[in-house]
Structures are given as C-alpha cells and as structure tokens.
Design brief:
Keywords: Membrane, Transmembrane, Transmembrane helix
Transmembrane segments: 26-59
CATH topology of the largest domain: PH-domain like
Number of strands: 9
Mean pLDDT: 84
Shape: elongated
Order of helices and strands: EHHEEEEEEHEEH
Strand content: 25-35%
Low-confidence stretches: none
Number of helices: 4
CATH class of the largest domain: Mainly Beta
Strand order of the largest sheet: 7-6-5-8-9
Structural class: alpha+beta
Largest sheet: 5 strands, mixed
Helix content: 25-40%
Radius of gyration: 22 Å
Length: 191
C-alpha cells in the first residue's frame, strides 16, 4: 500500500508576500486611525487597501495565495517516506507524526463558512538527528481513506507513529476514541 499526494509549497512569487505585508500595515493603519479619531484617514486607507487589492489580484490573474500545490510528490509506504525524490527508509525514521487538518471541500466548522482547501496537513519525522517537515494535500474523502488504510498497515506492522487531528488531539485511524474504544483498538492491534 502506498499513499501518494502533492507537496504544498509557498508561492514563489515574492510580490504576494510583500502585498500581504502592505495590507497588514494598512489594516493596522486603519485600526490606529479609527482609535485616534481620524475617521477620514481611516476611510482613505481602507479605500487604498480595497482598490489596491483588487488591482493586485487582477494583475496577478488571481494567483495571490501564499501557498499552493507543488509538482513534487510525497509518497508514503510501510517501507519509506519519499519527499520530492528524497527517500527516507522507515527503519531510520524516528518520531513520525501526522497532523491531519482536513481534506479539500470538507466543511470542518459545519456552518458552510469554513470549507477546507486540503492544504493544511503535515508529516514530520527525524532522520539522523535532522528534523524533516512536509506539508501535503488531501484531495477528498477517498484520498483520506487511502491514508487511513496506510495508517492501519502501520498499526498492523507496529510502525511507531502518531496521528493528530486539527485540534491537536491524538487520533487512531483518524478517529477520536473514548477509553473503552481505545482499549478495544489497542487489543485489536496488539498494543
């Protein structure tokens, strides 16, 4: 079994970072101007920010995200982790940890307002005293199920790892368990 996905990388266009810092500065300026009683200045700063943002997005053809999908892939199996062509043998990996936020399209706040882009998932581990981190993409429920099946193989083969959800709580096969469920899970997998 192998899990394959794309790596998330920062936008190589540094003007996006500069624009984000300018917007943050303008927001701070609007806030300070409002607090000090300069409502007219605050209105002008807000107008500059809005018009500038629209023009910037138009010029960049909408490519104004700070991160996006890379062409490089992450491949994980019970024998190795491969990140953009660099292979790390499972026997040398220590402190393997998966932080799973959500897959693309998931309404993770159940209010219709916070739909995930699937890009806030991480795998990290240590190899030869070197910390390796990789942000990766989960495409949807089927893709997430494939990752879960790999986790199940890890448990069967007793490969040490930790899976953590978006709230920082340890999960097992992407589920939170109460004490009784956890005991049954550990019994099933021989822990």
């Amino acid at each position: 079994m192998q899990f394959v996905t794309y790596i998330i990388e920062g936008n190589p266009d540094k003007s996006v970072d500069v624009a984000a810092k300018i917007v943050a500065g303008l927001i701070a300026g609007v806030f300070i101007a409002c607090l000090t009683g300069f409502a007219t200045i605050a209105a002008y700063l807000f107008l500059i920010m809005a018009v500038g943002g629209i023009i910037f997005a138009f010029v960049k053809k909408g490519n104004i995200q700070s991160h996006g999908l890379s062409k490089s892939q992450l491949l994980i199996s019970t024998s190795s982790v491969q990140i953009a062509g660099d292979v790390y043998e499972m026997g040398k990996i220590k402190d393997l940890q998966f932080r799973i936020h959500s897959y693309a399209g998931l309404d993770y706040m159940a209010d219709g307002l916070k739909t995930s882009d699937g890009m806030n998932n991480y795998v990290s581990f240590t190899v030869d005293e070197k910390k390796i981190n990789c942000r990766f993409y989960l495409d949807g429920p089927t893709h997430t199920l494939t990752l879960c099946k790999l986790f199940q193989e890890f448990y069967y083969k007793r490969i040490p790892f930790i899976e953590i959800d978006r709230d920082g709580i340890q999960t097992y096969l992407l589920q939170r368990f109460d004490d009784k469920e956890l005991a049954a899970f550990k019994n099933k997998y021989g822990y």
